[in-house]
Each structure stands twice: as C-alpha cells, then as structure tokens.
Protein 1
Amino acid sequence: MNFRAGLGDIKLRSVLPTDNARNNDKAAQILQKVLTWELSDPRWERIAALLDVMAAAQRTGDHDGLRQATANLKAEGPTRITRIGAAPTGPPPPPIREQINTLIHLLSGTHDDSGEDGSESR
C-alpha cells in the first residue's frame, strides 16, 4: 500500500503472514510430528523420498510442490491398526532424522552458517 504523506510516499508492508509462510509453518509442524512416528523400514524409505521432494521444492521456491509433498507426507503417517505379522516399526533412522531437522530449519527461516550443500562456509 502506498500513502501520500507530507514528506513523500510511505510504503506499508503487510505484517500478516503470506500463504507461503503459512505453508512453510505447516510443513515444519508436520515434520516435527514425523520425528515422533514409529514406522517400518519400507515406510521410512517412502518418507525419505518425500523429504527429498520437499527439499527440492523449498530450494526452487516451488510452493505448490511443497504443499503437495507436505500433504503426501502427512498421508504416510502411522496407522491405528497393526496387522499380525507386520514389519517391525521404529523411530526415524538417523539420516532421515537429520534430513527432517534440516528441513525444519530451512522452512522456519532459522539458518546456520553452512552453505546450501550443508558444508560450513569459512
């Protein structure tokens, strides 16, 4: 918005979060929940693939892609019923846990001094 003032134009920025910021917040919240999930190894592999999609979408600014990947991630969550003879479940393996934590930091806007590839900048 522009307002005409005695000394010139004043531009006001909206302090309301944008849709993209809300989507990032929602994705980060779901990722926090994923850290508590107990899934089988094959399901963790599917989660890892979705995390790759989310990271790529975040890196390229593909907000629709991030939104869709977040919805798919949520749908991969634990089920209420465990079938007899089902594969054992467990928490996220360390590489997936690290990937989740990295995404949470990227989505919430808290960055460390590392480069895009995760290496430290000097």
Protein 2
Amino acid sequence: MNLKHGIPEPWATALTDAGFISPWDTPSMNRLSEATGIHVSTISRIIKGQNLKGPTHDVIATLAKALGKPAKELGKWAGAAWAELEPYSPPAVSALLTKEQRASVDMIIRAFATSNKAAQQDADRAVVIAAQIATKGPSHRAQSKKTT
C-alpha cells in the first residue's frame, strides 16, 4: 500500500488537491472531517479500508462532494459495492393501483425526497463553512501578559 504521511493513495492526493491540508502541509483527515461533519475516525476507517460495515451512500456522497470527485470513484476507493442511483420508475404492477393509492405513494416519495434534500443542503452548508474555516488557517491563542 502506497502511503503518503500515513494516508494511502489515491486518498492522500485527493485530500491535497481539494485543499484539506494540515498546518504542516500534509493531507488532513481532520480538515475533511471539519468540512463534512463526518467523524474523523469514520473517515480514517474508510480511507484505510477498516470500515467493516462499509460506508453508507450518504457518507460516500458527502466525502465525494467535499473532495470534488464522483461518488462512484470514492466508492471504488473505499471498496464499497456501489451503484449510481438512477431515476425512479415505478414497477409495472403499479398500474394496478387506484388513484388514491397512487396519490399515497406519491406523498411518500415526496416526503423521502424532501428529507433527503434537507440532509444534502445541511451537508452542503457544512462543507462551505468548513472550507471557510480551513482557509483561515490554524488559530493562535492570544497569550495574556501577566502583570505583577
């Protein structure tokens, strides 16, 4: 395994290219964590191939967006079985539903879509805020002068 500062490729290069750099100019999982809201230990397990359950679609999509890479590509890096979501088309048997049943199914789909959209907007805001924080660089605490 090719490692760059303890992070395997292609992850290390992706972190660097996306600007997730530590104060020591090395790829930073901590900065990615700050940008995405995904705990750094989760990111570490995914990057190092130690995530036994496999990453969820939402986690991979959030990481992909932050790194500026296609989710399918990150899914491959993480060793995740990955399938791009295709537009929904109801099964052929849906023709048997009544008008009221179709309206109910439509309401359920809209509720899921609204929830997913809100979650994605939250993730997008977190990425923007973290990027703003990352561009400010490390903070230095002001040292108080002790008077005697």
Protein 3
Amino acid sequence: MSGNFNLIFLVVIMIVMFFMMNRSQKKQRSNRESMMSKLQPGAHVVTIGRLHGVVDSVNQTEKTFTLDADGVYLVFDLDAIARVIDDGVDQAVKPTKEATTTTETNVIDKTKTVLPKDENTEK
C-alpha cells in the first residue's frame, strides 16, 4: 500500500513541476513578444552578442532590424535582441552637464625636503 502511495505522490509532484515550468516559459514568451511589439526606431538595445546600439529601422516582414552602433549600420534578426534599455535607465547613464564641468582646486604640496647630513655634525 505504501509503495503505491509513493508512486502516486511522485507522479503528482512531477505533474506539478511540469505545469510550473510551462507557466514560467509562457510568461517569459509573452514578455518577449510585448517587448518586440514595442520596438521602434530610436530604441536603445543590447544584442545577444552584447553589442549596444540604437535601432535605426525595423522590418517586420523580414523580421530584421538595422542597428546603429556609433555610425556602423548592421542588420540583425529580431531574435538577436537580448534586451531593450528603458529611457529611464538610459538617462541615468548619460553624464550631466554638472558632472562634465571642471572646477579649479588648490592643491597643497606636502612633499618633504630631505637635507643631506652634514659630516661635521656627526663628530
């Protein structure tokens, strides 16, 4: 009797694990689809090869996009996008005007001057 119970318990646990993993994958798939549907020119993206750039154009019929990486235009499949960087994150990375301005500071020179020992004082 306990052998049957252990077998049933094991099967129930496996079924629950299967449904939990399937639910997680479905959620990831829907998040990715919503990210791809919102993709438009001007969006900052990171590819699966960790190449950062700005989307120049999107071709939904061929499922490709053109990436502008500092003046170099590259064509990728839409599946090559690892993530889209939000505007809030992107603005936090940009240096502000205050951070780029330099200010003049006074530096105090604290170097020690070592004088040679006088041979007459040692005697």
Protein 4
Amino acid sequence: MGGFSIGLPHAENKLLSWKTNKEKEVCAFLIHHEETPADTALIIESIWPGYDVKKAKSYLYTCLSYLRRSLQEHDVPISVDKAGNGFTIRLDGAAADVTTFEGMLDDMLSEFPASSGINESIYLGYVAQVSGLRDKALTHDLITLQPF
C-alpha cells in the first residue's frame, strides 16, 4: 500500500504516519467505500482473510482506535463512524485524488457517446483504455488525501 497517504492539513508536504500497516489498509479500504457503510465482516475478510474472526475483529477495533486517534491528533478533518453492522468514513472536505481521477475518466468517456458516429471498435477500444487506467490507479493504490 505504498501509494496511499493522507496529507496533514497544517503541515505542507507532510503526511500522516501510521502506527501499523493494517491501520493504513483499514483507512484505505474505508475511503475506497467512501461514505458507504462497509460491513465489519467484509472488512475483516478483506484485510485479514483466513484469520480467526474473533481475533480479526479485535485487530480491526484496535486499528480503528489507532486511526481515529491519529486523525484527531493531527486535526485531519476525516471521521470514522459506526454504521449499522460496520463502519463508514467521512472525508469532511478532504478530496481523494482517485475520486478526482475517476471523475476525469468519466468526463472523457462522456465526450465520446457510443452514438456519436465513430467506429464502434474505436469507441470500445477507447472505453477499454479508460477503464484500464481506472483499474491501474486502483490496483496500484494511487490515492492521496489532501484535507484542503
């Protein structure tokens, strides 16, 4: 998860440090689901596959505690909340560059509607290329949060 980071709001070019790699993974997972509640079982299976559920749940709660504390100590306007049987994260004004990137890709696709008269194979190739860029960005964790 080398490409995931959160910029500190009051320290230019400084990033939030993580107590553990799993804390970072939980944060990235919740941001990937952005404001949509992620079920506890889904988080556990995604972050700790094959682990004893009781132990993994304890690890999850520990990571969430570390995450909340880190965000609060550095005045990062992001909150992690209990939501039903899981958790959600609110970016509270922060912007994930992957969300911005996906919006740009969607805009690119909307510029070339399928009915525009261009050759269908060219259009499908363009869609595949844009989709490939989106997949590559998500696969390589190209996510940075800047609270401003």
